[in-house]
């Protein structure tokens, strides 16, 4: 992206965490928007479904977290991991059969989410330690003071198309334009923590629940209309938020594929460019197929 930033003044910090197990409770069942009970995989552990560019919906899953779900055992350290890890940060597995394998942070949910090559994912297990090279919080767009940037590695920003236009706006390419009606779980939370679930991507449920979002892909850049994520998340007419889809299929009503926040500001600060290829997979240095060290 052709835009001036303060990237040369950012601090890089090394953080650690571990792959967290999938969890459940003794009650087992939840119900979907039509009242059907379900028991489905999704959050936690190592999930071998949903790389960048893959469909976000259509899986037999609930709150699908692609790849590695990472957190820290110490609550305060875990908040730091959530707040400081940015989309595009490099992640390295430190222990277990996949030690030395690398991946990339693609967003936050209940955990920091990491995409990696299948060979790395298949060799990684619950409890394996990971290292995150955290860089990006504090990123400023020097010619766009009304646009607040969150959770974005400056290397990803540099690889994104768009930039400062002749009329002084920020051109951003997005794969989907999302109405404010779709904003579900996540409202009111910090925009550096977890993500916002998008309602209306309920494939196979009642037609009146659909907002036409079933074609979303993991990593798609989206614009959320009339939404302000500057200091939390909420409805604000005339504002826009740019995010990247970091989680997938949800069966629980009021939830859905979720974008992690990247930018937010008044609509007049942006020029939105519809681009079906606007996906994080084109902008991150996700490793090619790797041989996991023996």
From TrEMBL:
One matching Pfam family: DUF4438
Entry-linked InterPro entries: DUF4438_C, DUF4438_N, TM_1086_sf, TM_1086_SG_dom
Domain called DUF4438: residue spans: 29-157, 164-283
Coiled-coil blocks: none
Ranges that cross the membrane: none
Protein name: DUF4438 domain-containing protein
Organism: Microlunatus capsulatus
